[in-house]
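Hi W.,

Here's what went into the run:
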Amino acid sequence: MGSILKLDRLSKAFGAVTVADALSYDVQQGEALGVIGPNGAGKTSMFNLITGTLSPNSGKVEFAGQNVTKWNAARRSHAGVARSFQVPQPFSGMTVFENAMIAATQSAGLHGHEAERFCLEVLEQTELLPKANVLAGSLTLLERKRLELTRALCAKPKLLLLDEIAGGLTEGECASLVQTIKDIHASGVTIIWIEHVVHALLEVVDRLIVIDFGKKIAEGEPHAIMNSPEVKEIYLGIEADA
Amino acid sequence: MDWLNAVVQGTLLGGLYALFAAGLSLIFGVMRLVNIGHGDLIVLAAYLGLTVTTATGMHPLFALIVVVPTMAVIGYVLQRGLLNQTLGDDLLPPLLVTFGLSVILQNGLLEIYSADPQKLEAGALETASFAVGGLNLGVLPVLTFAVAVAVIWGLQWTFYHTALGRAFRAVSDNQDIAQLMGLNRRHIFGVAMALALGVTAIAGILLGIRTSFDPSIGGGRLIFGFEAVIIGGLGNLWGTLAGGVILGVAQTVGAKIDPGWQVLSGHIAFLIILAIRPNGLFPRISA
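Here's what came out:
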């Protein structure tokens, strides 16, 4: 058990808009970390910085003990970083199975039958097996969210980043998705999960951080954090102490 | 019978146009790159064939063994060294750069090979023919058409049944997500261009056996290629073959009416189809 991800004073701004402001935290191997914060707080940008889609203005990203700040997205993917998107972005002209195969063959580096078998296992786990030969563009929202998860898992991630995967789902859909995520976590995958559906989040995560204006403003045990006055202020929409 | 003959000859000619177009269609499909230099690359392949056949005395069809890999390597290097740098949200830079490439290729060929028309000597193949139901078919046009069908079938199979094809489609669908899945798009684009120029090499050699060529004819081949792609519908390879055939038939039928109308009637057919079906006859269904 060591640190798998370490952000060190990571900063990123687009003109006057700061999306990451000296952001620092560690994620331990096997941990499930929850991230909350108001819309536009820089949560998704933080994921983009971790996956390498964005490069920071300053600061450092360490993954599995290596400084990956200068690595591109493809290389970080090979190293074991995978993510799902808030707005699902499947390869819509390809089937569900082919979507999974891209991650399994390119990111996880599997070949032939081994890759196919692995994809089928993951599809079984994410309950998409009956849809394997359907074009991804024709899936429902829940199925698309499950496909996001499938693709991320097919990459055999060491670190799985989930971006509001429970958003927009019904109660029942949400519960079954939470169960799937619990199983994934139990299998040893480290998870960072951004979520507005807090009750779903609290069922899975060991630790919570709160982000606002690109800054980490609170960190700790999930229930304690949710009850802290600072967080309540933000979620009630009251201007934080000026 | 004369009209039927014109249609059949036009269909076979369409095979050559489909070969001109297949490379264009492939690279547009994978990376949304419009290659203005494509016609000149076809001519370059014909000249490479000329160099190989004159240096070794090989039959031009055997020269393919050398010219196809050479063009493929040129394609990979060209893509990674130059064209990848031009790709982005703006369509203009690749247009300008490939236009510049076209000018450089034409002048380079002019410098090396002079403006004299050249031809690839293929011996008996050039004039051989056989009779089918009262029509005389040239062996070369039939061979060209068969090669076009085989190439398009091969590309289609690669696209839908191989890991490489899956990578092509993923990158074409969403480049950023493909990167996150561990695909190196610069490399994938390089491979796509290598494949496209491999096909271009075949087109160039068959062109050189069929007619004489000089460094200035690339532009015309580019137009035929574009027309075939657009008639067939962007991104659909079998559509590209159909587009080539329609163009070829329009040209031979036009020439039958009046020999001066050959090229013009092809363009007219293209304009009519563009007016009726702006997306081409068989556009790829996009989600």
